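Standup notes
- DV: blocked on the single-chain target, sequence here:
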Amino acid sequence: MVQGNTAKIIRYMLRNTEKLGYNINQIAKSVNISAGSSFKILKDLEINKLVIAQAVGNAVYYALDLKNPETHKLCELLLLEEKRSLKGYPKLYSESIQHFDKAELIILFGSVLTKKEFNDVDVLFMTDKVKEVNAFCLELSKLRTKPVVPLIIKKKDLVAELKNKKEAILSIVKNCVVLKGESAFVEVIKYAKR
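- DV (later): unblocked, structure below
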């Protein structure tokens, strides 16, 4: 699989939607590695055509090349790895939620991922099947100790929210685990960066 710091950089670049990309210092600071290590990793990714480098003034900005099928697949694998590493309540809920078959994309987010004590389980469903999602979440809430709270959104609306830099949606994308639809997640990010 992808090495630790390389995976951190790719995840960061995938989840942050600036069209221009990020310079070495921004990336290094955000993923908590040295600028030298960041530079070496980004150069390697550039050589392998996984990122695109663009000079702007005195800085070079790097962005994932999501038009490259290899980059797309690598991002999907990293998202799958995140889901596999879930433990405790997030894992318990994800095992039930990911089997909902009427959504192209299902994302777990919120306090269930970050706190031991949480009031509910926040889940984004990318679908137009509102009634089905609500019925599914209501049924699951009866079986579990915490209610499952759905955020239902269509693909075009999710892309538009990301393009318009809606803070709530940006926060979800930056701090979520994709339970289903890794390819759809990468596609949404790709369209949002256009």
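- Follow-up: The longest helix spans residues 69-84.
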